[in-house]
Amino acid sequence: MDTCGDVQLLTKLSGASDPHHFRAPGMRRHLLNKIVHHKCSAMKKVLVPTDFSDNSKHALRIAAQIAARAGAVLEIMHANTALAYAPPLPEYAGTVQYNLDDYYEQATTELFNLKTEIAAIPGNERLQIETRIEEGFLHSSINRVATEDQADLIVMGTKGATGAVEFLVGSNTEKVIRTCVCPILAIPITSGDQFEPKRVVLASTLQIDQVAAFKALAAWQAIFPFEVRVLYLNNPAGFGNNDEIDQAVSNFAEKAGLTNVATHVSNNTFNEEASILQFVKEINADLIVMATHQRQGLSHLVFGSLTEDTVNHANTPVLAVPLR
Question: Which among 23, 76, 174, 184 has the fewest CB atoms less than 10 Å away?
Answer without folding.
Answer: 23
